[in-house]
Design brief:
By secondary structure, this protein is α/β, with parallel strands linked by helices. The protein is built from twelve helices and six strands. The relative contact order is 0.19. Strand 5, helix 8 and strand 6 form a beta-alpha-beta unit.
Length: 283
């Protein structure tokens, strides 16, 4: 079997009693499939018996759209409540209709309420560590916690970075997105130093998203990206292809495998899931 075929193979089930990975998914530009990654990684990992929590720190409603949940939940049913002084440990997690394939997917919603939350964080003591404190004082039992982060490198991303064990960075193969990725990596290094994160979260890799092989500039950048990242010792994943079917699935509030199981894009998330499962096995 070729190395590429091996990387695309379905990961085997693992024991459920493992350490916890907190995976930061973010970018310094919008529309690069952060939420698509979060939903599909969560679903695939749950298919293999893991319990996954998605904490939506983003200010848009993409997570609600992709998961088939209400786009306007009460404040006390959002991550904003978790970050408030009123939180006492009852995590407002909700399971989407598709969230029990074998393991379990639960979501703590964000949305527009996070705009005000981001502003209020500036007034809090230990503001960068507030989510870390919540997870320390009131631990989640899930093997994987995914942080779906906003596309601006502000206070909400500082909060997410401080608690993360791993980072996954989606990029679109355009000059703007690649420039944003470079700025994000600079922010990551400086923030880890300033917050004295020891050890700093590991960069799991960069993943080209929304790849359209019909676009010559994307084909060119796809060849160059591993070289650009290799000098920084950062892994480049195979691409997540562009497909209108992702939009069609999100309009139904379900992951792509439940919308079109045979679609080739369903396999695109497996290399990332393989690495996450390997990290859980190693610890």
């Amino acid at each position: 079997m070729s190395p590429l075929a091996n990387s695309m193979a379905k990961p085997a089930p693992i024991a459920t009693k493992t350490k916890q990975i907190v995976l930061w998914i973010g970018a310094n530009s919008g529309g690069v499939s952060k939420t698509t990654l979060a939903i599909h990684i969560a679903y695939e990992m749950a298919c293999h018996g893991l319990d996954v929590a998605i904490l939506d720190l983003d200010t848009n409603v993409s997570m609600a759209q992709f998961s088939g949940l209400s786009k306007n939940p009460p404040w006390e049913e959002t991550i904003s409540y978790v970050l408030s002084d009123e939180f006492s440990g009852n995590w407002p997690l909700v399971t989407p209709s598709w969230g029990n394939p074998n393991g379990k997917v639960e979501i703590c919603r964000g949305g527009p309420v996070m705009v005000q939350t981001g502003l209020e964080l500036a007034l809090k003591k230990r503001r960068e560590y507030i989510l870390q404190d919540r997870l320390t004082d009131f631990p989640l039992p899930h093997q994987l916690v995914i942080l779906d982060c906003p596309a601006t490198l502000g206070s909400l991303n500082d909060v997410a970075l401080a608690v993360s064990t791993h980072l996954l960075i989606p990029v679109e193969l355009t000059p703007k997105s690649l420039s944003g990725c470079d700025a994000l990596l600079t922010w990551y290094r400086l923030s880890c130093k300033e917050m004295r994160l020891n050890p700093p979260p590991q960069i799991l890799g960069v993943v080209p998203a929304r790849y359209n092989q019909e676009e010559s500039i994307q084909r060119d950048y796809l060849k160059l990206l591993p070289q650009m990242l290799g000098g920084q010792n950062i892994h480049c994943y195979p691409f997540i292809r562009y497909s209108r079917e992702f939009i069609n699935a999100s309009e139904r509030g379900i992951p792509l495998p439940l919308h079109r199981k045979s679609h080739k894009a369903c396999q695109d998330f497996l290399p990332i899931c393989n690495d996450l499962i390997a990290s859980l096995r190693d610890n």
